[in-house]
Amino acid sequence: MSEALINGLAGAGGGIIAQLITYPLQTVNTRQQTERDPKKDKSKSIGTLQQMCQVVKHEGWERLYGGLTPSLVGTAASQGVYYYFYQIFRNKAEVAALEQKRLGIGDGSVGMFSSLIVAALSGCVNVLLTNPIWVVVTRMQTHKKESRRTPPSDVLLNPTEQAILPAVEPLAYGTSDVIQEVYGEAGVWGFWKGVLPTLIMVSNPSIQFMLYETMLLKLKRRRAQSKNVSNGVSALEVFLLGALAKLGATIVTYPLLVVKARLQARQVKNGDKRHHYKGTLDAIIKMIRYEGFYGFYKGMGTKIVQSVLAAAVLFMVKEELVKQTRFLLTKNATNSVKPKHV
């Protein structure tokens, strides 16, 4: 089994576990990001736990997990694709660094700039392949289950009364419903809504992995210089390094995440024009004009908690899965080459 495949599968497994743990926070955060009421200022906003309680009270527990199935598929696909291509590009960067060392340039290690490029290329491939999944997930997370009054079946309404009667949303709002809705709005290209800010957002995992790899390398070097301490890195240390790396990346790139969520959420074309965005630039201009710069940071506190926790769990689980897989492969290889006694 190749190193790229091992890292890809381990990343997918770690991503699924992290998603299961933090999904309710992600649902609330997506709703906070897509809140478009300009009159709702900072002082009137409620906390994350309060919003979770309101969702449970008015819509039920299941709404906190709306879109969980496609989200798990998306997480597995995203992490698998990302780590697979990350390892491939990383291997090429390491080969190039060793070649540079032979020419008397550098020490043979992959530098921060090279790590940034590797992460960015991996992120671009990931975005282009998995964006349709996240459009579906965003729609399902922001869908609100509303109970509306309907007339009894034996009551006949005239055309005027029927016209003013609010449309009743179906209780079931599944993946197939979202796919039909997105396709009906914009065709195939509708599944790539928000792809531009998402491509720019690859700087988030790029910064994250650059920080993570840098801190991990420094920690390993420090361990190597100390004779009394093991050179290995514990799961707790990986957890903390992953959390710090994600925290730094999230603070820098959060406004792009809000713009992406606004574009991917359902937009009512016949409603307030301030809430309808034609594209990335239109969304940015309208948000600045009607909501101010605060609009770009809605729900940031929730996102920091969710993303840092998810990233920390992801890194910890992924590293453990890689270690165990390597151990099992090495053990099997050793057993297969042992001479058989006659």
Automatic annotation (TrEMBL):
Keyword Cell cycle: no
Keywords from the UniProt entry: Membrane, Repeat, Transmembrane, Transmembrane helix, Transport
Subcellular location per the Swiss-Prot or TrEMBL entry: Membrane
Claim: Transmembrane is one of the keywords in the record: yes
Transmembrane segments: 110-129, 191-212, 233-257
Pfam name, any one: Mito_carr
InterPro entries tied to this protein: MCP_dom_sf, MCP_transmembrane, SLC25A32-like
Start-end of each Solcar repeat: 2-92, 110-218, 233-324
Gene3D superfamilies documented for this protein: Mitochondrial carrier domain
Membrane topology (UniProt): Multi-pass membrane protein
Family classification: Belongs to the mitochondrial carrier (TC 2.A.29) family.
Protein name stated in the entry: Peroxisomal nicotinamide adenine dinucleotide carrier
Species of origin: Stylosanthes scabra
